[in-house]
Structures are given as structure tokens and as C-alpha cells.
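> tool_call: predict_assembly(chains=two)
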Amino acid sequence: MSAPAEPTRAEVCVVACAEAWRGDGEILASPIGLVPTIGARLARATFSPDLLLTDGEAALGVGTWPVGGSPAQTEGALPFRQIFELIWSGRRHVMMGPGQIDRYGNINISAIGDFHRPKVALLGVRGAPGNTVSHPCSYWVPRHSRRTFVEQVDLVCGIGYDRAAAAGTSAARFHQLRRVVSDLGVFDFTGPDHRMRLVSTHPGVTVEQVHEATGFELWTDGEVPQTRLPTAQELSLIRTVIDPAGHRDAEVRR
Amino acid sequence: MTDKRMTAEQVVSELRSGMTIGIGGWGSRRKPMSLVRAILRSDLDDLTVVTYGGPDAGLLLAAGKVRRLVYGFVSLDSIPLEPHFRAARQAGAVEAVEYDEGMLYLGLYAAACRLPFLPTRVGLGSDLMRINPDLRTVRSPYDDEELLAVPALRLDAALVHLHRADIHGNALCLGPDPYFDDLYCAAADRAYVSCEQVVPTEQLTPASAVLVRRHQVRGVVPAARGAHFTSCDPDYPRDEPFQREYAAAAGTERWTAFRDRYLDTDEAGYQRAVADRNEWTEVAR
């Protein structure tokens, strides 16, 4: 048997996303975007077996199924109304894809420029305001750049640590940002005053490269380690079960 | 009991310019598109539209029918950004009342319960209060929490599309998700239900799937394929090739041709044009 091919950047990102849900127990994992979706299924298939996962429509899926496919078995319906109630109960951890994110984790997914006449209209605030004050949130950025990692977001949709603190107890009580994964590295908010910290860089990425692609000052303390590599079992699950068609390589381009 | 069947044109004749109209469904899923198309053919305008938006919002915006849009998002699902919505927003052509998705639910629920507001944590600390300066907070009488008060979203009319209904207005949802269609009906002074099929009352089974009851409904509109091109599972899925054609035509010189062919005609003409299109697609294959 030949040795498995080296992990690609996309596969490293999948595992870094999966790690967001480690230790979460019996909650709904809500990945938005392809790489987080592969990551959430990988997490459940390995180290976080109690996670709940939706089929992308209105049912909870059982087992591990490929992206673009449907689960062979479901364990109940989860219509949107009950998703909102679940969000407000706190039993969820979402990974969203911000159009802009700042050093405190404020994110914008609604509009670039002036809200009332935006340069670029995006989706709308969607569930970001409610998610960030209700349960843990993480973020996935497939292309790390100064356009996404900005000094100040144009519209605060999901709230960061500074806004949560300023808004008072009711906003801050259940606010918790876990991690940011980009195609260059992994970040959390354990810098001074909950500023974004560079946790690790992906193989082949330098710390300078990350600073260069970030529009604000990133906190680092000491030597920055490398993001952990996928295990042989993880690689096999990604390549043969969850994403056999290799869609992940279209989302991560470097 | 009253026979509440009516045509889409009769529904539209009961609506007025300037009204607040709630549209059921979610994104590009189970939208009352035949009723939306009837509004496009009418002289109604200056509307406030409350929606988990999809092509309903897009088409009404493109036709200049909407003064104010109350929404959590506008998306075609498989195509993330609705092109007409995007164009209207970027031109500053519509007053945008953007809420968190969950706030829309609470606003409809408050209206259904005849409450002025419902309290929530949602929106605190975000820019929602900056872009919607009418939003207020409320202090809990039980502890020190200060919460956002989502105002009731009372509707003049609600439009929803369901799978089966009887002539009295009881309507069955066979799909995977009822979305918020029952709340739209309960929040409205007048609710209109279009449906794939009108059936005798005894065929509305299982009883637990009856989502909307007749006391909430003013009109029942028989509308086979009335949700097209949005999904109406399990009766039919979203017409993805058609949706792609719609999105690709938006904002280009091809939009006039799209409108001529599909919208400047009655519902029967629309359904015929769609059937012809699919036939030609088959031939091309």
C-alpha cells in the first residue's frame, strides 16, 4: 500500500474547523460554507460523536454523509422556528463566514459601505446578531486578506468582545467567540482585552505573511506553532467518505 | 360554512397601495409566487413587504412595487445573492428595515398575540439599533436585564402557499418545514392561502399537519405549481435551471425579454411559457 498523499491546505483547514467543535458535547453544530461543513462532519465522526447536525434542510442527520448528498437516516425534524428556539437556549455552536471581521471579532455579512446605499449589498444580517449574544460562535475565512480582516467593520452584525462589554450584561452574558480559521492560520480572542491572537499558522505559511494579509495589529505571544496536521484516519474520512469529489479544493485556493 | 375560493385577481382587488403585506415561505422555498405575479400585473405600489426574502422580494423590487422592505435576508438559496435586491439596495431605491431572522419571528408572534412587542437579547450590541433608530429597549421588572423590544409586525394582509387546502381555508403543510406561514396568517388582518390542490376536508390528514385553520383565512386560491420557481417539496423541487435563467437575466438587456415572456402574461400564460421552456430544454438535451 502506498503512503497517503501529503495533506493539502484545504485538508488542514477542514481539521482546523473541526477542532472548533471539540469538547462541545450534545449541541447543534451549524457550519456555514463547505470547509466548515466537512469539518463538522469530521468532528462528529471522530472526537465529538454527540454533536447534532442538520441535513441542510429541516432534518437532523444520523451518521456521516458526503457533502452534496443526504443522510441515509434522520433523527427528527428541526424546522427553522425550533432552530431559533434552540439558538436562544444556547445549545448551538455556529461557524459563519464573515465578509469583514475586526480584532475584537465584530463581523459584517450585510453591506459594504454606507448601509442605506451600500457599495455592495450582501445577504443581510441573517442570524448573526442573535447567534453572537446566545451561544458560541466561530468564523471561517477562505481567503485571508486586508479586505476581510479590517480595522473596523462597516456594519456590526455579529458582535465582538468590545461591543458585548459596552452593551452590558444582557449582551455579554452568553457571548463567546471561540476561533477564527482562515486559509493562512488559526486565531482566537485571548489577546489583551480579548483581541484577536494568532494561534497557529498552516504548514508553509509564515507569521509575516499573516501579518501582511491582516488589516489590523494581530496579537502574538512567543513562538507561533504550526496548525496540527490531519491524522491518517481523518484524511481517509475526508477523502473517501465526506468529500470524495474534492469540492474542498475549490474553496481553498492556495 | 363559507366557500372561500377566489382567484389571484380577486385577492389583488382586495389589496391597496401603501399596505403592509407579509409573504410566507423562506428564501427560494414555498413562496406564493402566483400571488406575487398577480401583484406584478396590478397597479399596486408603495407597499411595505415583510418577508424571509427570496424571488418574491426580488420581483416586487424590480417592478418598483416596494417602498419599504422588512427582512432578515434576501437570498435564492442555491444562488446566495438575490440580484434585484442587490440592485435596489445599491441604488438606495428601497427603505431597508433589516432585522435578525429571529426578530422577524418575534415580531410576527407579537402581532399574532396582539402584543406591542416581545423582549429579546437579539440585536443588543449590534448596529441593528443604529440602522433601525425606532428600535427601543425594555428593562426587566424581575432582574437587571435590559432587553431589546421587537415591535409587533402587524400585517394588513398575508400571502402564503401551502400544499392542500379545503374550500373553507383549512390548509395542510406536507413539506419538511412549515416556516412561519401560520404566524404570517395570524399576524394579518386578512390572510390568503394559495394551494397546490383544493381537496375535501376529510382529506386534510394527518390532522397534525394542518398548519393554518379557517378562522384565520379570508381567501383560498387554487394554484397548481403556484410556488414555481421556488421549491414546494414534496410536490416539486425548486426549478434550478429556471432560477439560473432568472438570476442571469436580472439587470441585463435580457431582463426585458424575460419579463415579456414570463411576467407580462397571466398565470396560465406563465405556466405555459415555463412548460414550453422545459420542453425545449428536453429537446436540446
